[in-house]
Structures are given as C-alpha cells and as structure tokens.
Amino acid sequence: MKPFDSRQCKLLAARELSPGIFDFTVSCPELAALAAPGQFAQILVPGHTLRRPISICSIGRETLRFVFQVRGEGTEKLSRYRPGDDIDILAPLGKGFPIDPNKRTLLVGGGIGVPPLLGVAEALGGNAVAVLGFRNRDLVILEEDFKNTGAKVLIATDDGSYGHKGLVTDLATGEDFQVLMACGPGPMLRGAGALAGERGVPGYLSLEQRMACGVGACLGCAVALTDGEGREYFGHVCKDGPVFPMDRLKEV
Amino acid sequence: MEKNNKLSVNIAGVEFNNPIIAASGTFGFGREYGELYPLSELGGISCKGTTLKERPGNPPPRVTETPGGMLNAVGLQNPGVEHFINEDLPWLSKQGTRIIANIAGSTVEDYCRTAELLNGTAVDMVELNISCPNVKEGGVQFGVTAEGVEGITRAVRERCKKPLMVKLSPNVTDITEMAIAAESGGADALSLINTLTGMRIDINSRRPIIRNNTGGLSGPAVLPVAIRMVWQVCNKVKLPVVGLGGISTWQDAVEMLLAGAVAIQVGTAIFTDPYAPIKIRDGLLEFMDKKGVKSVSELTGGVRPW
Ligand SMILES: Cc1cc2nc3c(=O)[nH]c(=O)nc-3n(C[C@H](O)[C@H](O)[C@H](O)COP(=O)(O)OP(=O)(O)OC[C@H]3O[C@@H](n4cnc5c(N)ncnc54)[C@H](O)[C@@H]3O)c2cc1C
Ligand SMILES: Cc1cc2nc3c(=O)[nH]c(=O)nc-3n(C[C@H](O)[C@H](O)[C@H](O)COP(=O)(O)O)c2cc1C
Ligand code: FES
Predict the structure, then answer these.
(1) Is B27 in Cβ contact with A219 (below 8 Å)?
(2) pTM beyond cutoff 0.90
(3) Overall fold of domain B9-57+74-199+219-298
(4) Nearest CB neighbour to A233, from listed B56, B69, B220
(5) Is B266 touching ligand 2 by the criterion CB < 6 Å?
(6) B222 lines ligand 2 (CB under 6 A)
(7) Residue in B272, B275, B279 to test binding to A, most A beta-carbons within 10 Å
C-alpha cells in the first residue's frame, strides 16, 4: 500500500469558524485510513506551482478535516471552495505526534497552531490538558471540539477578552503531565519548550517551513537539527517532521 | 510500463525506454516518488546533485513560489558521492530505469574525482552540473565562460568512463557558445536549461524571501526561455540535447522535442503533480498515435521555423 498519495477529494462541509479561518471536511477514505494526528497534507490550488501545506486537524473514518487561515493568494482561493467541489490533496505526509493514551499529555496551541492538536486530543481519549491561546475572543476556535474529546480545556487571550489574559504557558501552572506537545508561533513554542524543560518531561514541537515537494525529495524545507552526539545538520520539516522532539532542534 | 519501441530513445549510446527523465534535485534519489509508481515507468532519473564530500546545503528558507514557478536555493545539500554509491545506487539500480548521476564541485579536481568514483558503478550516464547558481563554489564559475565549459568538460572527459552529458546554465549571454565549448571539450550530450537566477523580496520585512538572497527560477515560467535555448543550441551543435525547463504537460514536451531535444526532463512540475512525468509520457504516446508518428525521434527538431 502507498504510504501517501494524491487524490481528488470531495469537499463535504465548509464553514468560516472566525473571520478568515475556514474549516473544511473532505471525503477521502483511502487517505484518512493512512493518516495520523500531526501529519499534514499538500493541497493543490489550481494555477499555482506549489501546493499549500496544511495540517490534518482531525481524522474521521472516511474524512479528513482541515482548518486554515487565509494568509495569501493560495489560501484565499482555497477558502472559496464550496461543498461538492473537488480538491486535489497529497497526504498524509510527514511524522506526527507520538501518541500514548496512558500518558497525561499537555497540548499547547497558539492561534492557527491549535487545529493540529485536536486530532491528538481525540486520539488521547481525554487524557489531555489543552491550553489554547488566541489573540482575542473573536479568534477563539475549536473550544467545543476539544471539550468533546474529554480533555480539560483552558483558554488564554492576549487581550483578556476571553479566558485568562496572558500566555498559554501560564495556564499549565498546577497541571500535571508526563509529555508536552505544542504547535503555534515561534515565541509560544519557545515558551512551551522551556516549560517541558522545567518539568523534565519530553516535548514535541510542530514546525513550519516553506515547502516544494512535501515528501522529502527536493530538500527545500530545511531545519537545523542536532543528532545524539551534538553534530549539527539540516533535516527536513516535511519528512523528518513537522513534529520534532524538542531536544533534536538546534533552536526553536 | 512495457517496453514501447515508439517511445524508446538512444542518447549517447544509452537506451532509454521512454524520453521522460526526472530532473536533478526534484526527485531525490527516487525513493519518495518510488512509493507512488514503479520507477521503471520513467525513462530515467537524474539524481540529486552529488559532490565529492558531503555538503550541508543552505539555511532556510530555501524555496518560494513565484508567478508560474518557484525559486530554490537548496545549495546542493547531499551526503557525498560515496554515500550515493553505497546507499542509494544499489537500490536504484534495481528499479529498471536509467540512472544519471548529476555531479557538482568547487574545483576541477573535485569534479574529476567524483566522476572517477562513479566509473565502476551501475550509473548509466554522468550529468555534469556546471550551472548551479546557488552555491558560491558550486561549479557555476565553470559554466558561464566558453573557456570554463570547455576546460572542465575536457578534464572530466579524460577521467570519466561513462557517457558524459553537460548541463548548461541559462545565465549567460549566448548559450550556443557554451554548447559549442562543451562539444569541443568532448561532451557526449547536453542538457539544458538549469535554473535562471532570480530574487523575491518580502515588502514588509524588506528581506529577500530566500535566505540565500537569490535563487534559481524554475517551473512553467521558464518554458519559453528553455524552448528558445534548446532550439538555438540544436541549430549549432550535433550533440544530442536533453531539453528541460518548465515542462509540465505533454504538449510542453512535444514542443521541446520539436525544438530539437531527443528527450526531456521534468522537474518542478512533479511538485505540483507527482504523477506529471507519467501523464506526460502517456499524453505524448497518444499524440504520436493520433498523428501517426512512429518514433519520438521523428519529432526531434521537427519545428518548421518561419
Ligand atoms: C507542515 C505545515 C502545516 C501547516 N498547517 C497549517 C494549518 O493547519 N492551517 C493553516 O492555516 N496554515 C498552516 N500552515 C501554513 C500554511 O501552509 C500557509 O499559511 C500557506 O501556505 C500560505 O499560502 P498562501 O498562498 O495563502 O500565502 P502566500 O504568502 O501567498 O504563499 C506564498 C508561498 O509561500 C508559502 N508559505 C507562506 N507562508 C507559509 C508558512 N507559514 N508555512 C509554509 N509555507 C508558507 C506558500 O505555501 C506559498 O508557496 C502550515 C504550514 C506547514 C509547513
Ligand atoms: C529544488 C530544486 C533543486 C535542484 N537541484 C539541482 C541539482 O542538484 N542539480 C542540477 O543540475 N539541477 C538542479 N535543479 C535544476 C533542475 O534540475 C532543472 O534544471 C530546473 O529546475 C528547470 O527544470 P523545471 O522547470 O522542469 O524544474 C534543481 C531544481 C529545483 C527546483
Ligand atoms: S518540501 Fe521537499 S524536502 Fe521538504
């Protein structure tokens, strides 16, 4: 069986979750059967040479869910798709989060980095604390979805318009966890990494980089890594990641 | 795919099952896309550029999209030719496709020793990359003057026992001078074009998007330049020419053959559609059948210029 493939996938449901953030569910039984939380897809935008990397948000029996933010031309065109349209998806790609439902897991998400953690919370069957940060109340997404997984959910906003005012990592005070998984902007990832370090638990961070092939062939999506012996080299986000054990990253 | 004599081509004594070859640097060493289809579906694979010693490559970002194409400055990241020979070639040589080793270096001696190490191996052909625009000492200094091209071609020719294809840079005033120089230096074939040096700037941060500042432009945007250059070169030299640059459909491939190419390479189009090389092959065959063309070589150079 092919570990990934490109397919025309029918868009089943499309919704705008908050201004500029879209929630797509596509039908793709073959790809869904292969997917794991934290992996991503390369989505074709007709007329564009490079596919857009978008994380798998949630994995259904025959569906995949993607939540993406309009950032430029490609995501803008994508946001105009309507249910019934076909989308060309190359997936599932990369290495996802190492999930162990026996370990209480802290999920640290920021902004558009929140969606990929939903699939993790689902796979953990509730044995998770999700601390999720957003700029303000209007941008809070997926709170109910996370609650439905059985996870404990704590929200922070930068301006205090909803939940805790301040950093997501503040919310972890008083929480017990054996492993940390994070996805979000650079400063948040640094904070999450520091938190895992303080608690002495393993941390896994999901990274972004500009990509061409998405499968490990072009070496376009370099990330500076260190091996066990402290030797530095360039790995690749699409194949070695996007999720990395934080002690392998040269810098966050 | 079964051998189809209509599609088979001979380049410098090497028989290819079909004229569709994966372009260097876009197909790795075949393992990734080999998960999607048997590599024997392709006429050949030009492997990622390899150098005498391992190279770390450039810091990211290394790629970005451009209208109708992309820029890259990967910087020849590769594990070195010996790793290629020991780790990749044994597997690749069992895939039933032709293997082209793409070699680069910073000195003439580097190139020669890299080529020598490949002499006793399963590699079918060596492609001399003297046109990588993304590393200071990645060989492009040899690729932009006629003396440089002739000198390095001759030096490698003396020590390389495999058919030698020289890959030309489009970043020159007159590419036909480089083609003639490669022919005089003893090349068995030419491939063109490599990428055109380009640049994009983020207007908010005022930083070039590619960390190397400049990168190589490839993809559909460069097709007309590639067609023109292949046509000019084919009018000046007798060597077989493998045409590439921006080919993404079978129609593009036919154009490239008509311009004079004996075979084509597909690169960036694979990022848009991993199955592009196969669709191009099938489309080409269908076109030939429809037009009553019995062999690809009948298309080569078939343009009727005004
Ligand atoms: C592994 C991975 C997972 C991702 N998951 C999600 C997700 O779940 N939801 C979401 O909203 N976004 C996600 N992103 C970011 C998303 O890929 C970019 O926002 C998107 O590519 C922007 O495309 P554009 O055409 O709208 O923007 P433009 O700026 O017009 O794009 C120009 C080029 O730059 C690339 N590019 C621009 N920004 C980024 C970026 N941040 N990362 C990688 N490439 C970029 C584009 O792919 C394109 O090739 C992910 C990125 C990666 C690498
Ligand atoms: C990401 C990337 C990496 C490349 N690496 C190499 C390389 O190692 N050696 C080489 O000769 N050409 C390299 N090239 C150039 C291609 O082989 C080809 O000449 C060029 O991209 C034009 O063809 P295309 O438009 O079909 O991609 C690279 C191109 C890309 C996009
Ligand atoms: S995008 Fe090609 S190697 Fe990662």
Answers:
(1) no
(2) yes
(3) TIM Barrel (3.20.20)
(4) B56
(5) yes
(6) yes
(7) B272
Task: Work out the angle between the directed axes of helices B223-234 and B250-259 (0-180°, nearest 10).
Answer: 30
DSSP A87-126: EEEEEEESB-----TTS-EEEEEEGGGSHHHHHHHHHHTT
B248 lines ligand 2 (CB under 6 A): no
Of the bound ligands, which one is closest to the alpha carbon of residue A212?
3
Nearest CA in chain B to A5: B36
Looking at the complex, does the CB of residue B28 fall below 8 Å from at least one CB of chain A?
Answer: yes
- Closest by alpha carbon to B48, among B87, B22, B73? B22
Q: Can you list the domains of chain A with their CATH numbers? A: 5-93 (2.40.30.10), 97-206 (3.40.50.80), 208-252 (2.10.240.10)
Interface contact A49-B272, CB threshold 8 A: yes
- Assigned token pair, A153: 């959910």
Per-residue pLDDT of chain B (306 residues; tens, 9 = 90+): 455 689 999 999 999 999 999 999 999 999 999 999 999 999 999 999 999 999 999 999 999 999 999 999 999 999 999 999 999 999 999 999 999 999 999 899 999 999 999 999 999 999 999 976 666 655 667 899 999 999 999 999 999 999 999 999 999 999 999 999 999 999 999 999 999 999 999 999 999 999 999 999 999 999 999 999 999 999 999 999 999 999 999 999 999 999 999 999 999 999 999 999 999 999 999 999 999 999 999 999 999 999
Atom of ligand 2 nearest to the CA of A219: 1
**CB nearest to A217's CB, from B26, B61, B209:** B26
Q: Which residues contact B179 (CB under 8 A, 6 or more apart)?
A: B168, B190, B192, B233, B236, B237, B239
Q: In what order do the strands lie in the sheet with B69-72?
A: B63-66, B69-72, B215-218, B196-198
C-alpha span between A156 and B24 (Å, rounded): 48
Q: Record the tokens describing residue B301, joined without a space.
A: 């150079």
Say if the Cβ atoms of B72 and A220 lie within 8 Å. Answer: yes
The domain locations on chain B are: 9-57+74-199+219-298
**Is there a contact between A90 and A6 (Cβ–Cβ < 8 Å)?**
yes
